[in-house]
Amino acid sequence: MFGFRFHALRAPPQARSLPTTHLVARLVPAAPCGWVFFDGSETRMATKDGADLIIPGGAFFPKEARRYACESDAGAEAARLNDASLCLDRPWRVKPVAAFEVKRSTFAHAAAHF
Known about the structure:
Layout: E1 22-27, E2 35-46, E3 52-59, E4 67-68, H1 71-83, E5 93-96, H2 106-112
Antiparallel strand pairs: 1-2, 1-4, 1-5, 2-3
């Protein structure tokens, strides 16, 4: 009588994304994990004497941060933020994403799926 055939739709091949291995962060002891991470947003301001300042957007958790494909890309971004900052101690640093990854134990993994 009625015959239906379904053909599986294949998803188009996706471009491989570059590994995102580094973050730009600054040490802030009062933050939830002790760091504030650059999220990629910024507000530009000019001082009364005409100097340009950048107020970087911040995230409290690494998953919310902008990630960079390599250490040199992250380093260039940290240098740019530090150069346009009022802080003289150059607080923005490059940190590997792995430094903020928490390994879950087998027990924690099992409990999360319970």
